[in-house]
Amino acid sequence: MKTEFYDTLNRQVEALFAGENDLVCAMANLSALLNDNLEQINWVGFYQLKDGQLVLGPFQGKVACTRIPLSKGVCGTAAANNETQRIADVHQFDGHIACDAASNSEIVIPVRQGDKVIAVLDIDSPIFNRFDQEDEIGLEKIIKTFEKVLFG
Q1: What span, in angstroms and rounded, lies between the C-alpha atoms of 9 and 15?
Q2: What is the pLDDT along the chain (152 residues), one digit of tens a residue?
Q3: Does pTM surpass 0.85?
Q4: Backbone φ and ψ of 32, nearest 5°
Q5: In what helix (H) or strand (E) does residue 106 lie, and over which residues does it extend?
Q6: Distance CA 73, CA 138 (A)
């Protein structure tokens, strides 16, 4: 069932961003699309890699941390290691940065231009263990489509 949900979202991403090449514009609309369609989340958005740190980009949710050092927190770890981080309980994650005390689980997916990480998609939930393997696969596929449409 989740596979069909993410396949539908992926088709929406392809259609929404066809012909779009502005990264900030696309990140704003993707965060809105995910916010409107994902259940049990309290924050979704992007951090862009700039000058060796992650800087807050377009998002949906409460006020957020504006800068995150690489290798710090879930977002910094995902960017530094160039791999998705799916955390069932953020309070058990060493070095977790608590921007919103209501967040209990998190998934962070690197966004790449070529082989280089340029941003991360960060999604938080107040529900422990909110994100499973199907969510990870579906969201990674959406990011791959996002990258392909924007960067070729």
Answers
A1: 10
A2: 899 999 999 999 999 999 999 999 999 999 999 999 999 999 999 999 999 999 999 999 999 999 999 989 999 999 999 999 999 999 999 877 777 778 999 999 999 999 999 999 999 999 999 999 999 999 999 999 999 999 98
A3: yes
A4: -65, -45
A5: strand 105-113
A6: 23
